[in-house]
Amino acid sequence: MSWETIFGQLGWDSLVFTGAIKHPSASEFVAFGAGSIVVLGAVAVVVLLTAMRWWGPLWRDWLTSVDHKKIGIMYIVIALVMFLRALIEAGVMRSQQLAAYDSAGYLSADHFGQLFTTHGTIMIFFVAMPFITGLMNYVMPLQIGARDVSFPLLNAISLMLTAAGAGLIMVSLVVGEFSTGGWSGYPPFTGIEFSPGEGVDYWIWSVTLASIGSTLTGLNFAVTLYKKRCPGMDMFRMPLFCWTTLCTSILMIFAMAPLTVATIMLALDRYLGFHFFTNGDGGNMMNFANLFWLFGHPEVYILLLPALGVWSEVVSTFVGKRIYGYTSLVYATMCIAVLSFGVWLHHFFTMGQSANVNAIFGIATMIIGIPTGVKVYDWILTMYRGRIRITTPMLFHINFLLTFVLGGMTGILLANPTVDFQVHNSLFLIAHFHNMIIPGVLFGMFAAVQYWFPKAFGFRLHEGWGKAAFWSLAPGFLLAFFPLYWLGMNGAPRRTVMWSDPAFYPWLALAMLGAVLLLVGTVFLLVQIGVSIRQRRQLAVPLGDPWDGRSLEWSIPSPPPAWNFAVVPQVGGRDAFTEAKKNGLAYRSPAAYSDIEMPCNSMVAPLIGIFTFTLAFALVWHIWWLAVLSFIVVWGVVIARSFVSQTHEIIPASRVEAENEAFLAAARATPGVTRDLEMSPENRGKAAPDRLEQAGQKRPDDVLESAI
Amino acid sequence: MNAPQPLHPGVNLDVTDRKSHEKASEVIFGFWIFLMSDLVLFAALFATYAAMSTQGIAQGPAPSEVFDLGSAFIETLLLLLSSFTFGFAILAMKYSTSRLRLLAWLGVTAVLGAAFVAFELHDYYVMIVNNDAWPQTSGFLSAYYLLTGTHAVHVSAGILWMIVLAVQVMTLGTNPLVKLRLLRLALFWHMLDIVWVGIFTFVYLFGVAA
Prior knowledge:
The complex is a heterodimer.
Chain A: H1 3-7, H2 16-22, H3 26-51, H4 55-63, H5 68-99, H6 109-143, H7 152-171, H8 199-227, H9 240-272, H10 285-319, H11 326-339, H12 355-367, H13 369-383, H14 392-415, H15 417-423, H16 427-457, H17 463-489, H18 505-534, H19 576-582, E1 596-599, H20 604-621, H21 624-642, E2 648-651, H22 653-669, H23 691-694, H24 700-707
Antiparallel strand pairs in A: 1-2
Helix pairs in contact in A: 2-3, 5-6, 5-7, 5-18, 6-7, 6-8, 6-10, 6-16, 7-8, 7-20, 8-9, 8-20, 9-10, 9-11, 10-16, 11-13, 12-14, 13-14, 14-16, 14-17, 16-17, 17-18, 20-21
Chain B: H1 18-55, H2 63-66, H3 69-95, H4 99-131, H5 139-171, H6 176-209
Helix pairs in contact in B: 1-5, 1-6, 3-4, 3-6, 4-5, 5-6
């Protein structure tokens, strides 16, 4: 058997390390370093797991788990790991641009191309997507009073598909090169003629895996929200985070398929010589742009909507008022979701369609500003006459309101095709979408972690380090991206590896400073987690309600038991837990307990993850036997699973009762903590009633709403 | 005994098997959503074909030169008939205590489906031999083979699924899990019919008429 039969196009030269030895240069050394970090990181993880004897617990408690809470945490871990990589890549690109004033800098053009491609691909598909998916996984079932999602095993499979895609993109640092075609991968540049190597194939298969995973996630969450709400939880009683999760799920169901179609067509062009997007022979690359952005624009809202849901939860909790304009927020979310399908063409105004077509899509784009504006006013009005506690999530929220509106303004500018013709493909665009995604989505996720971390782990995060992180991240963002608006207006194109205009230099230097601050802020976040773990006794909030929360997830212990709710709750209105606390119904023992049926762990999902990874890797390197074998194994696992009839286990009522009664007794015995002391060690996770309520006065929101 | 409310569109198990019926609502709804997502995929393929079949012909043959309406008509009849027989299989599952009847109807459906796929492969063969119409020939043919090929892959997956479920009927019996799987396979199968009606109309009839 020949080498090609067994290893496909893999060779010793594919290893990133050989490049640095054969053609030493700064660029190759950077690649060498990056590859080494991946290898050393993997070795370190293996050593740690072996030394601590964690392989068993990792497999039993995490990888084979179908618990939505654990799956959510694993998604967020993937997001954080990938975030570190893509953030460092951003720093490397910034430093290259600073070094490349009137010189070549230290990276080759090809290496720079790979950097901006992986940065974008990772940040969208393997940071933002797993972050929001993880958060929705963790929080949404708790908020609707469900014990799990509708299809727990499918949920685990979605996670493992995403993990396989993330693994593939990490492997590309060590074996071979990545695409240089940008995160949107436009052909014909990414066709076989202009990008003959394995790079684009890495992009295709990692994105395809993530895309299929997200489709299944959307399906799962939508069904959960429609079918698994607890008694009394009407649609219009759901917390707003659930509404945004629902809209995001619907977007995922409809928007991921066009991406899958586009990547599969590109793969057919590259592997089998089809002519979907080629130059000549009837290929049509405009069709790729259409299919990609038919996914790509809803994708923007897939990312943003859950973050908007987070902001609604955060603001009403830390203002101590019910959210202002609940119904309008629901309709605004729905409007955004629907409109997001009608604007994809604004990503390529300059590609030659008629002015009328551009005008229609430009107007549709501007209209999205209206429901978004409604939301901003609702959040501001929620704060009006509230007692605002300036906690870390709240700082992020206020920062979001200010900067997001600015980003929205530049979006309205870009929505005008005549303006877009001037600044398209420039750094102005880069500044705009980072301005939406960083303060909106990324900081939204950071705020969500600060807010729900105590729910997931039973202790709060250290507030001082959180604030330190905020005060690095928020100015860091402004410094890193506002100069890019100016640069873009002065004609600086995006994705540029070298410069010669001296006027750009100071702005690039400012942007570099911003990138450093963003890195520092991220380090502070990691330090915060470390410090909080060390001080977990002082920070412990086992009673589950550290912030005087309003929705059902705060009514159960922290961390919650596997079955979430000892007895499925019954709700009678919005802000169910606040109502229960007000009426003295919180922490009451239920009349009776019954057995709970929970899904068993399953090795199906990790097996599918492993073999879809080998399938994708084999396709990248043309190792056909491995591709065929992996494909058969993946489907073999699915079929074998369908013959397993014992898929659930019963948790006896006695055990549920013992655990829950112990929690309730502790909660009843513990005096509540006031809002003023919520950051002190006195906070054990039980909130004292509001002082105004104790005095029998009207709450501020009642005053406001009766006035209107 | 009064019949319970139907929980989902299509055949409900209700009166004959209340236990399975109560579990049906969530999984059947989930499967409808899956079908919706799958239809979006087909919609993207149809849209691509619509553009490519007029603008992507290049130096290759035009649709009217390569399509054989007679063969496409036979395929249509085979697939529609197979949906009809699947309907009988589901009725047998609901009302009959005999597994044999269910298995027989499933077998007929699978054979009809396999015949459909065989005819389609034969179409491809004829197109390639007579017109040199490979998927690599032009954008139009790339889109044609991907659209009809994706459908054929779906049908083949459906047949494989049918075989797996037939084995489960024989080994596990018609327990609630297997019944609900059969209901979902039926939905999948009927959806493929609808997609095929679209293909027959937009690809074959329009292609030959143009």
